[in-house]
Specification:
magnesium ion binding, hydro-lyase activity, metal-binding, magnesium, binds magnesium ion, Enolase-like, domain 1, alpha/beta, three-stranded antiparallel sheet
Length: 382
């Protein structure tokens, strides 16, 4: 069974006027997503998701014009070989690096979908896992910068749905970040896990002031206080308190960057995104590397049900699995456009889909509702 065609479909959705969510990466204007379809000589079709990297047209062009010609004709089950070819041609020398990793990720996810469909097995089973309940937190583009009262109400609404963990957006300014964190902890009580994410917006001086407060409210982690490769700051911040682990990984590509993070010795929670980091094939390797150091894997989960499903299967087959990031964004029509891929239970847990492959039925007729919109998805104040 060979790969006969690779197609990437870019999608966009503009948020309604006045409905932006503001966080450390800026204020959202629109959501973008890229669906990757792989056709095979046996007629089996697989789907995956590539992160758009704030430049959906560029990733789609890279898939069509560079990666597809490289991979068409290869065995559709050869996820190691396809990974290796793209790595050799796009990473080793004169390639696109992170852009290529995002493009490859969608293809790799589609190939795993095909592998599961060919074996008539849900992906978690093919990966060696089982159908199990997985702890989830309320994440995605939600719980942004807003008055404490409305933030606590939003948090409460997720807890009422069943979530036992939520993620607050920090990186606004020290004073408001501290005020919001203390208020939400007081409002929701001590039994809910509060995770925090600064989306790379902190300086080390700001982290020094915020981390002791996060220790006081028993925050589960502080995610991406600094830019992805600013290892010196991560190392410094890890000395401030042993009580709040630092988390990162959604902006780290391929296991080699995770190995650098390991060498820096400052990030205790890893968050590879299956639609960015080099696909499921590479995420398995990253998880194995992490497991040897007792580092939990909490994948970042992006936009559509395809990546959500892939993350659930992956977590159900990973020994050192942490939370599933459940996208609770109010304005993300991509999450459920193929039908919901997860539902939160009263125990705060979700389950992987049980159909073959990713277990997602893709109806392509919906794509016409979301024509791609060029331009950045966020605006940032500098
Ligand atoms: Mg994040």
């Amino acid at each position: 069974m060979n790969i006969t065609r690779i197609t990437a479909i870019p999608l966009s959705y503009r948020l309604p006027e006045g409905k932006t969510v503001t966080m450390g990466v800026g204020s959202t204007l629109k959501r973008d997503a890229i669906i990757v379809r792989v056709d095979t000589s046996e007629g089996l079709v697989g789907y995956g998701e590539s992160h758009p990297g704030r430049s959906p047209g560029a990733i789609v062009s890279h898939i069509h014009n560079t990666l597809a010609p490289m991979l068409v004709g290869m065995s559709a089950t050869d996820v190691v070989g396809t990974w290796q070819r793209v790595h050799r041609m796009q990473f080793s020398s004169h390639g696109l690096g992170a852009g290529a990793a995002m493009a490859l990720s969608g293809i790799d996810m589609a190939l795993w979908d095909i592998r599961g469909k060919a074996a008539n097995m849900p992906l978690y089973e093919l990966l060696g896992g089982s159908h199990k309940r997985l702890p989830a937190y309320a994440g995605g583009i939600a719980l942004g910068y807003q008055p404490e009262q409305s933030l606590a109400e939003e948090a409460q609404s997720y807890i009422e749905q069943g979530y036992r963990a939520i993620k607050l957006r920090l990186g606004d300014n020290v004073k408001d970040d501290i005020k919001r964190s203390l208020h939400v902890r007081k409002a929701i009580g001590d039994d809910i896990d509060i995770l925090t994410d600064a989306n790379t917006a902190y300086t080390i001086a700001q982290a020094r002031r915020v981390l002791p407060v996060l220790a006081d409210i028993h925050a589960g982690w502080l995610e991406e206080p600094f830019a992805c490769n600013d290892f010196a700051s991560y190392r410094e911040a890890a000395k401030i308190t042993p009580l709040v682990p630092l988390a990162a990984g959604e902006n780290h590509f391929m296991r080699f960057e995770f190995a650098q993070m390991l060498e820096a010795g400052a990030v205790q929670v890893w968050q590879p995104d299956l639609s960015k980091t080099g696909g499921i094939t590479e995420a398995i390797r990253i998880a194995a590397l992490a497991s040897a150091f007792r580092i939990p894997i909490n994948p970042h989960s992006s936009a559509t049900g395809l990546n959500h499903a892939a993350s659930l299967h992956f977590l159900a087959a990973t020994e050192n699995s942490g939370y599933f990031e459940a996208c609770v964004s109010q304005f993300n029509p991509f999450r459920d456009m193929f039908g919901p891929t997860f539902s939160i239970g009263k125990d705060g847990c979700v389950e992987p889909p049980s159909g073959p492959g990713l277990g997602v039925e893709v109806d392509e007729s919906i794509f016409k509702d979301f024509p791609v919109i060029d331009g950045p998805g966020y605006v940032v104040k500098f």
